[in-house]
Design a protein that fits this description.
Chain lengths: ~270, ~325, ~325
Amino acid sequence: MGAKRNPSLVAGLAIVGILTGVFILGFLFTPYDANLMDLSSRFLSPSAAHPFGTDNFGRDVLSRVMIGTRTAFLVGLLTVLIGGSAGLAIGATAGYSGGLVDEAAMRLMDAMMAFPGILLALVVVTVLGPGTGKLILALGLMFVPSFARIARGGFLQYRDREFVLSARSWGAGPVRIMALHILPNAASPMIVAASVGFANAVIAEASLSYLGIGVQPPDPSWGRMLSESQAFLFKAPWCTLAPAVAIALAVLGFNLLGDGIRAARKGGGQ
Amino acid sequence: MSEKPYLVEVRDLRKYYPIPRPHPFAGRRYVKAVDGCSFGIREGEIFGLVGESGCGKSTTGRMAAGLEIPTAGSVNFSGFPVAGAGREEARVMRRSMQIVFQDPAGALNPRMRVGTILEEPLRIQRIGNRDERRERVAEMLDLVGLDGSLLGRYPRELSGGQRQRVVIGAALMLDPRFLVADEPVSALDVSVQSQILNLLMELRGKLGLTMLFISHNLDVVRYVSDRVAVMYLGRIVETASVGDLFDSPLHPYTRALMSAIPGPAGASGSSGSGRAGGRVVLRGDPPNPAEVPSGCPFHPRCPKAADLCAVKVPESERVGNHGSGRFVRCFFPG
Amino acid sequence: METPAKENLLEVKGLSLAFGPKDKPLFAVENLDLSLGAGEILGVVGESGCGKTLSALAVIGLLPPGCRIEAGSIRFLGQELSGLRGDGMRGLRGREIAMIFQEPATALNPVQTIGAQIVEPLLLHTAMTMKEARAEALSIMTKVGFAGVERLYGVYPHQLSGGMRQRAMIAMAIACKPRLIIADEPTTALDATIQAQILELLVRINRDYGMAILLISHDLGVVGGLCGRVAVMYAGSVVEEASTTELFRDPVHPYTKGLIASRPTKESKGRPLYSIPGAVPRLGHKPSGCPFMPRCGSAVPSCALERPDSLEVGPGHEARCPPEAEKRRRVDE
C-alpha cells in the first residue's frame, strides 16, 4: 500500500505515530517537571531552554503539552474502549436478533442520541463529581449509541448471508456466529469509528476540561491549558498555541487514520 | 424403490411472512411464500424441485434443512419431527441435514481461509482433536477434487468452481445423510457447471446421499433427479418421476415451463420431448405472492382455464394407480 | 471471412481492448473480428470474463474507465467508430445503435416514469414535438407487449415486474428505430417463462423492423434458439464462428465441442457429463500460445508457440484451431 494509493492512511499513521511517540516519551522523560512552578521565569517566550516558552506560573509548556498527550490518549483510548465494547455488544445483539430486541435497543440508543452528548457528559459529571475517571465514564457513555448503530448495521447486513446460514446448519450457536463469523466481516466500520471516536474523545475531553469539569488541576490537559491561558492570550500566545496545535494535530491524525483504514479495507478486504 | 420408507417427509408445509402494515390499524396481511407443500424423499433418492423465482422453492429447501421454522406443517427426518426435537436431538439431526447454496461467493466467509472453513463444522460439533480434524479436512479436499495447496487461500483467491467445491466439502464435513442443494450450479459458468454436477453425482454414489435438488433449470433437474416436483406460487402443482414428467407433463404450467427451455431447433441434446406439442409461450407475469389469485393460482395465465378454475382451488390428485407417486393439482390435466 | 459485396452494417476488425499500464497492457479482448449484416441476428456466446460484454461496450463507445482500445477498428455503416468521441458517438448512440442491458432494475432510472424514459431518446434524436413523441411512445409500448399503455406510461420502474421492466428497456432501445441493437444477456435475470416471452419479442422486432441484433449470452441455448449465426468467444477472442445449425451439428474448436457436450441432456442422464478440465485463465494470466491449450484434450506441441489464426473449415465456418482445421482438410482431400 503506497502513499500514492492511500495518502490518508500514510499521513494518518505518521501523525498518530509521532503523537504515540510523544505519549510514550512522556512516561520516561520530560524536559522539566510539568507541575514545577518557577515564578522567576514567568511568561518566557520560546527559547532553547523552553522550546514552547513558559506560562503564568513559570511552568514549561512543552513538558505540559507532553503530559497532556498522556491525558488525551488515556481518555481517548479508554473512552473508545468503553463506548466501543458496550456499543458492539448492544448493536451486535440488536442486529443479529432483530425483532423486538432490536426495536427496544435501538429506540433506547435513539433516545440517548437525541440528548446532546456534551450535555449528557455534563450531567454525569455534575452528578458524580469531577475527576478523570468519571470523565472517561461519561464520555464512554456518550459514545455508546454511535458505536451501537454502526455495529447493528454490520450485523444486520451479514445476519442472513449464506455463509452465516451455513454456520448455523453446522450447529453453531449465536455467540460463536456473532464473534467468529460476522464480526471479522463487520469490523471495518467499527475500526474506522474507533479511530474517529478517538479524535472526538480528544475534543470532548478538551471541551469539558476547558469548562473546568474534566481533568482536575494541577494535572495538565490540553483543554485546561487552553482555558487557563485565555486570560493572557495576547501577552503569551504560545501558551494557547501549543495545546491548540496539539489538539488539532491529534484530531486530524486520527480522522485521517480512520479514512485511510476505510479506504484500505474497501480496496483489499473483500 | 417404492418400498423404501421416506427419509425426509414434508407435510403441508407453510411459511407466511407478515407484510409491514402501512398504519397500526391496518389488518395484518401475509406473503404466503409456501402455502401447503407436501412431498417425501426416499433414502438415496434425488428429489428435484423446480419453479421460477419467488415460487417458494428456496424457502421450502431451507425449512427442509431445518434452517427456517415453518409457520405450519411439519418436516420429519427418518421418522422424527425436526421442529419438536429437543436440544440434543436437534444437534444430532442438524448434523445429518446440510445445505449447499447457489452463490459460492456468498456461501463462504470472505475472511476465513479454506482450511478454517472446512474445519469449522468439526470444531463446532467438537469432533476429534486438532490433528484428526486436519486429517479429515485433507480427506475432504481430496474427495471434492481440490488440491491441498488451497488450504491457506481465501475464498476470493479461488475460481467459481473451486469455491463451490469448498462449499460442498464444508457441507459434507459432518457426514450428513440428507443434502439440500439450492441452485448449486446456477451461478457457475457452463464449463464449470458440468464439473460440479459430476461431483455431486459422484458423491451421491460414494456416500449414498439423499438430496433435495432445487433449480430453475429444467435441463439440470432432469439430469440429476429421480423424481421432480414443480412449484408455482408456493404450491406444488405436479409431482412425478423424471421420465414421466418430461415425457408427458400433465399440468399446463409444467408444459409451459418445458417449452420455455431455449435451444436450437432440431439440435441434438436438450429441448427434446417437452416441445412435442408446439411451443407454449405463457402470457403475463407470475403474480405477486402477496396477492395470490382466487381459485387455482395459475388460472390467469393458464391457456386451459375454465370458469371453475377461478373459483375453486384444485386438490392434488393421484394420477394412475401404479405406485409411482404421480400427483397433479389441476382440474383439466394432460 | 470472404469479403462481402456490400459493406456490412458492423465490421469489427482486429479489435484489442486492454487494461493496465501502457507499457504492460493486460488484454481483455485480443484481435477480435466480428461482422454483422443489416437485419441479421448474431449471437456471441462465452463464459464470464471472455470479453463479450467489453466488446459490445466498445462498439457503443461506453468502455469502463481504465479500459482502452489498444488496436483495431470498429466500422459501423462504413464509419470508423474507434476514434470517435463526444458528440459523434452520442449522435449514433440511441439513434443508430441502442443497447439492452442484463439488469433492467438498475438500467432504468428509478425516479422517472416509464413513459418519460421512452420519450427521452425521441426528443433527443428526432424533431418530434412532445405530443408526437408521446403518441409514438405509446405505440412502441403497445408493440413491445404492454397492455393498458395509457396507464403504464405514467408508472415508475419499481411498480413493474422484471419482465415488464425488460420490455420497457426494449421499448427505449427501439424508440428511434436504430439499425443495430446490442442485447447483453437480456434474459439472464428473468424467469424461464418470461425469458421465452422476451426472446419471442426480440425475434418479432428483428422481423418487423429489420433491426440487426447483436445478442450476447453465456447460454448456448438462448443464442441457439434466436440467432442465425453464432460466434464463440474464449479468453478475449472469437474461437469459432458458424451458422447456428452448423455449429451445433459439427463444432470444430475443442472449446466449442466441450461447451456443447457439457450441457446436461436427456441422453446424458445416468452418465457422467463431459466437462472441460480447469478454469478460464484470469486476466493477465493468459498462456502465451493458444489460450485454451492448458484445458485442451487434443493440444499438440505447436499450440504453445503462438496465438493461433482463425482458419476456414467450411463455407461460412471459421475456427481458431490450426490442428483441427488441418485434420478437416486432410479428411476432405
